[in-house]
Amino acid sequence: xxxxxxxxxxxxxxxxxxxxxxxxxxxxxxxxxxxxxxxxxxxxxxxxxxxxxxxxxxxxxxxxxxxxxxxxxxxxxxxxxxxxxxxxxxxxxxxxxxxxxxxxxxxxxxxxxxxxxxxxxxxxxxxxxxxxxxxxxxxxxxxxxx
Amino acid sequence: xxxxxxxxxxxxxxxxxxxxxxxxxxxxxxxxxxxxxxxxxxxxxxxxxxxxxxxxxxxxxxxxxxxxxxxxxxxxxxxxxxxxxxxxxxxxxxxxxxxxxxxxxxxxxxxxxxxxxxxxxxxxxxxxxxxxxxxxxxxxxxxxxxxxxx
Lengths: 146, 150
Hints:
Chain A has strands at 6-11, 15-17, 21-29, 46-54, 59-67, 72-78, 88-97, 114-122, 128-133, 139-140. Chain A starts with 5 loop residues before the first strand and ends in a 6-residue tail after the last strand. With 146 residues, chain A is mainly β. The radius of gyration of chain B is 17 Å and the shape is elongated. Chain B is 3% helix and 44% strand. The interface between A and B is medium-sized, with 31 and 33 residues.
């Protein structure tokens, strides 16, 4: 599957992790409530890159998630992955990959209705202490010039 | 036959921690007084809202309909047990939707989109304290307009 352009899905602000806290990115591919327009369909599956960065914008964790409608996926981050210490800052990003075959004029990655959320979670209790959410859908950027 | 008219809330995926519950709160504020000559249509009475909770694979785990008149409110609560949370998993993901049900029937002066129900979702700890307020979508969401349910 040849992936080219990316569609920006979300980017959080800087958030802090303290002792016994972890962060997680959750993605949900919102199932469509109506039959898809055959002239404008998402790639199957929708592919999303999610990444965590430290305060110096160094990538510390990443994952490629392939989602079908209704499915979800997550990526976890620990304080240790940020270099340890008692507290550290991070931010998160997600991008929808354009995996459409250029010859397929009906394929549109902006039809990937991916909803993202980022949580800071107490590692012991599993309770969410901070929640950041994204718009329902991102917007595709044009493919990079070849 | 009533059908879902439009979506008024869809939350992000959020986890329920140990002892936590999820709650969708619905408020139907009192209607402001309107000049008689302006009133061509009216909302159904009462306004019916369907609240659905889903697990991380979009399986519906709880569904409840709530009838509200102006000034009333109601809450629908999801427990970890209803979500199917395992004891080994202290952070089980869910999301919630709320939709206005079109109960207008054949009344051409009735308009379900006039049901001004304000939703929000939150996680709640065992002591009743709110953990996080989950931002959803406020108002009709055309992109998720569903077909009539039979």
